[in-house]
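Board notes (copied after class):
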Amino acid sequence: MPKSPRPKSTAALAAPPAPAARTAYFNRELSWLAFNRRVLEQAQSERHPLLERVRFLAIVSSNLDEFFEIRVAGLMQQVDSGVAESSIDGLSAREQLRRIHSVVASLVEDQYRCWHDQIVPALAEENILIRSSGDLTPAELAWVNTYFREQIYPVLTPLALDQSHPFPQLGNKTLNVAVSLDDPNTPEEEKLVAILPVPRILPRLVAIAPSRNGPQRFIFLSDIIKLCAGELFGGYKILGAFSFRVTRNSDLYIDEEEAENLLKKIEEELRNLRRGAAVRLEIDEGVHDHIFETLCDHLELSQEYVFRLNGPINLLRLSALADLDRPDLKFPTFTPVNASPLRETAHIFDTIRHQDVLLHHPYDSFMPVVDFVEQAARDPQVFAIKQTLYRTSGDSPIVRALIEGARNGKQVTALVELKARFDEANNIQWARQLEEAGVHVVYGLVGHKTHCKLCLVVRLEGRRMKHYAHLGTGNYNPRTARLYTDLSYFTCRPKTTSDVANLFNSLTGFGLDPKFRHLLVAPFNLHHRINELIAREAKNAAEGKPARIIAKMNSLVDKTTIDSLYAASQAGVKIQLIVRGICCLVPGVKGLSENIKVRSIVGRFLEHARIYYFENAHAGEPLIYAGSADWMSRNFFRRVETLFPIEDARLRRWILREMLPIERKDNENARILHANGAYLPPARKPDEPPFSAQAYFIASACQRDAIAKRTTGAETSPAKIKPNPNSSRK
């Protein structure tokens, strides 16, 4: 396995003057929280179907969990270790934690207000009733008591807290109930404490007396346990019962240089994660002081990391509500269409040999990607398949196809990223299955995550080997491909596929400084080349030539790249950024970034594609790249990433004339980032109708599908389809 490469220096680029830190950059963590606020706005918005709003509310909680497990945990470690490193905006770790607490407290308060004041009443109007223990009718109470005795009581184990019973090891993000007890036979009130850890196997939202007729009634599992806790402590008086959960540091710490077997080392660390340091305590509002103090003492948490909640612990569990069979309360059903030139699976390689193909997921079906690998596994002319796997689905057809290919005698190589956060256990499972089937499994560069999305097929045609490649912006995961917006690019252009082959050889063998002619590859040439292209646009603008940059990504954090964009703005380059999540660049500041505009789109699908356009970058011909890399230091220097050029004129026209303009036209799900950090809806003229880019692309896909079904063999490129934008409103 090759050693980590030394990244190329960007010192040769013209460096702009360094702006004052506190005015030139937004804080990364606060910017991320602003993104999660935009997700909460989707839950608050009445223009979305009710159960979709419930789902957005659950996503807010899921996002916060990961934020605390990784980002807050890292800042807390900096404080504990005395590390003086400041953020891009000049804040210390301690100051960031202080501001994070203030922002999160407000966010969580609004999240629960949305649940109580908007969602619960709206659910009731739709005959979906959320019961608390005090709301239960006698019949419902009897049913709940029976359910507790039969389904819950047998699997609960009360754990006393006293001198002979040590404080239990509480799992990360598990539900627990703390019970305050008193012995009625003693004159003094002891306020004894016991903890009930709740097994993950129990459903957190329980349907009361399920029936096809009448309203659907639900009660949270924690409410049932608190109501019936007395049955576990015979003879004791229950003074109170309070649900809580602990969030722990969930980052893996792997010294890859010292790990003899990376797979076994990560397995060991995964077993240790449940014992990670506590970074957050969520607990019922009104908890007794002695319980609160006991938990904080044992968890070694100060009160700034404790959130008292007026409502159910862990709103992520609302996903069960969002999955109810109520299509009238969800987005209209949309099935990704298979209307591309690759829909004839038997001729996939013939099609790619004659034209490049670009798919826009989830509007275009992910099936051609699966078909590409499956056809390669079965085609007797295919000799080798090489594939990267970062995250994939539980029952992955891609993994099955690779196994089939190996069993058919092909040389199959899979680069499995064991360190894909929160998917480590799944990827270990895939690695073992692949190895058992005879697939060559490797783990990429030491010290780097393999995040690029590549598949290379080597096929014998006549007397020579020909390369076919799939390059993507998203994971090889059919499930998330229905939820994320991504691009899939198929090509057999020799200059692109030879670079893909070179990259695979570098990752599976040895290569300190591989050369790439057409791909931009991190950690080798990506950072240098991106900043070089930005600088070239600045030079063109200074010389009076056309100069423009359009960039769509998930996150913009890298300081060097932000400074390059500032310099380009000052030179007169018009810069349009579509940044879904974190953006540390401050737009619209006179003399610094007045030519830069930033927008974020948060909607039904998770915007995930990365596209970069440089107008006058190569002999007057615009350059368009797509790929896996955001503009973050981790992507530039600590991950293996690829950006690939889009060279087919037809596909370039679609990106420039439809995809990017449509996203910049969105006035419904888009928010404009202002210099003060506020994300506000785009200004809309009084007679201007609402316009959703995602709804437009759904309508476009349906239109292409209809054309494909009517006209066999007809051209169905997205560039040919122009639906009425106003008709896309759902």
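Comment from the instructor: The radius of gyration is 28 Å. The chain has 19 helices and 27 strands.
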